[in-house]
Design brief:
Length: 469
């Protein structure tokens, strides 16, 4: 496998060209290449925050801030580099440490040649010296370091630097440069965040990434009035630079609990769920629990990103009045593995031999795609036979859960008991099944819907345990 990947490295540029054609850009600029600049050509964020303190505070601690320092990324990319004889070193680094790539500091993949500014991930000066793009996917950005900074306003003035308007900053294609990833050898789409948006109703209505991820709203545009910098004019909307997704795992490692909290809130508003259960059931009856899950708030698939390791699943627990478990599915065993889930909503990739793999760099096919598309509704049914001697009423607890990676993946990379991957409750519905002999007037209504307080408190407890570990 390694030899085949190494011999095929010339396909990398071909993949870039194909992605550029896919983007639909009318005018493209040549992508900046490896080693074209020096790290000294870029400005440290400490200079930027002198005038842009609020925007800097938004960005600090985010996944863009930690794009390179993310310990999960650092461990994964070492494995990927070894598996591919270094073929993916520049490929992965181009989004995680773009300054490191355009300044020729990486490879080596271990970062031993990197300057401090290259380790700042997707930082201020890099983003705002993007002067064009050669399309979407695999980071075909054009950067022009220097005194001019580009952005979304056509009337910006600064005492420190020149300012230029670039329409790209107002389009999803800006985000799509990195949030669309195509295998550099075989063309397999690994991350389709951009294309799944482009093909959705959101794309048709031109509701762009920035409308959800750079506003005060969570799943729709909400204006954020203010100033882009000290001395700048007050505007009806200033883009928020926290740009949070669904990762509540990594930010806590860096003390950014506020970013983790925002990720949880975003996950909790991404879906709606309805659960139907019979109101009454007798011993021997076949009981069916039907859950419908709708991707009502995300403009892309759920989950997205490296969705072969993301996990969304339904947990169902039925207990009687004494706490005895009548039925369960989707619970975690003592090792953190998901036990008995009907389906895990993610992408299953396959290698050249058709075996499932979580290593996207070894994948050349999609074996299954169980993600939930924008505005899509999926249905899941759980059926069991009600045993005798149960104590009524029965409680049905249905949770839609999410975690950034399987526990076994983290254990494999870092060792067991190093990190516990938090499980976020995206949605929750409770209902009750009664004894047929119970008079209707004594049956209280079920409580469908999501309990923000209960889920938030559960997450706080998980984060407390995780932080202590």
């Amino acid at each position: 496998m390694r030899g085949r990947l190494a011999r095929s490295s010339l396909f990398f540029m071909a993949a870039i060209v194909l992605v550029s054609l896919f983007s639909g850009f009318a005018v493209a600029t040549e992508a900046t290449q490896f080693g074209e600049y020096s790290a000294d050509d870029f400005t440290y964020e400490s200079r930027c925050r002198q005038c842009h303190a609020i925007i800097y505070a938004d960005w600090e601690g985010t996944m863009h801030f930690n794009a390179y320092l993310d310990p999960f990324y650092l461990e994964e990319v070492k494995v990927a580099s070894d598996d591919t004889d270094g073929l993916i070193d520049e490929f992965c680094s181009r989004c995680h440490t773009p300054i490191g790539v355009v300044s020729g500091e990486i490879p080596p993949i271990d970062g031993s040649e990197m300057s401090d500014i290259s380790k700042l991930g997707v930082q201020c000066d890099f983003c705002h010296v993007v002067s064009g793009s050669d399309g979407t996917g695999n980071a075909p950005f054009t950067v022009t370091p220097g005194d001019t900074k580009w952005g979304p306003f056509d009337d910006s003035k600064s005492a420190y630097h020149e300012s230029e308007y670039l329409e790209l900053y107002t389009q999803s294609e800006y985000c799509g440069m990195c949030h669309q990833v195509i295998h550099p050898v075989n063309g397999l789409v690994i991350d389709d965040t951009y294309s799944s948006w482009k093909e959705s109703q959101y794309g048709e209505d031109n509701i762009v990434c920035q409308d959800c991820h750079m506003t005060e709203g969570i799943t729709e545009f909400e204006a954020n009035p203010g100033r882009a910098g000290s001395g700048a004019p007050k505007r009806d909307h200033i883009s928020s630079h926290d740009i949070v997704g669904g990762n509540a795992f990594i930010p806590v490692m860096f003390g950014a609990e506020n970013i983790a909290d925002m990720a949880v809130e975003r996950l909790q508003k991404a879906t709606t769920m309805e659960v139907t259960t019979p109101e009454i059931a007798s011993a021997g009856d076949k009981v069916t629990i039907k859950a419908t899950i709708t991707n009502s708030g995300a403009g892309h698939n759920i989950p997205t990103g490296v969705s072969e390791i993301r996990q969304v699943w339904l947990e169902v627990n039925v207990t009687d009045a004494t706490g005895n478990v009548i039925y369960s599915a989707g619970t975690l065993d003592i090792y953190g593995n998901i036990d008995g889930a009907k389906l895990i909503y993610n992408n299953i990739l396959g290698d050249s031999e058709g075996n499932a793999t979580d290593s996207f760099w070894l994948a050349d096919r999609v074996l299954e795609d169980n993600r939930i598309g924008p505005k899509e509704t999926v249905t899941e049914e759980h059926t069991f036979t009600l045993p005798g001697n149960v104590v009524y009423p029965l409680t049905v607890q249905t949770n839609l859960n999410y975690r950034s990676a399987p526990q076994y993946t983290i254990d494999h990379l870092f060792g067991e008991e190093m990190y516990e991957v938090p499980v976020i409750n995206m949605n929750q519905v409770s209902s009750t099944i009664y004894d047929p002999a119970t008079p209707p007037e004594e049956r209280t209504e079920s409580t469908p819907g999501f309990s923000i307080f209960a889920a938030s408190m559960a997450f706080v407890l998980i984060m407390h345990i995780f932080y202590r570990k």
